[in-house]
Amino acid sequence: MLPDEVLALLAGRPVPGRWDPVIPLLTTDPDGVPRICLLSRAELDVGRHVVRCAVRSRRTSANLRRGGPAVLLVVGATTSFSVRARVGRTVHDDGGLGAELVVTEVEADSLGIPLRSMGFQVDEGLARAERWDDNEALFARLATPEAAALGGEETSA
Question: Less Cβ around it within 10 Å: N or C end of the chain?
Answer without folding.
Answer: N
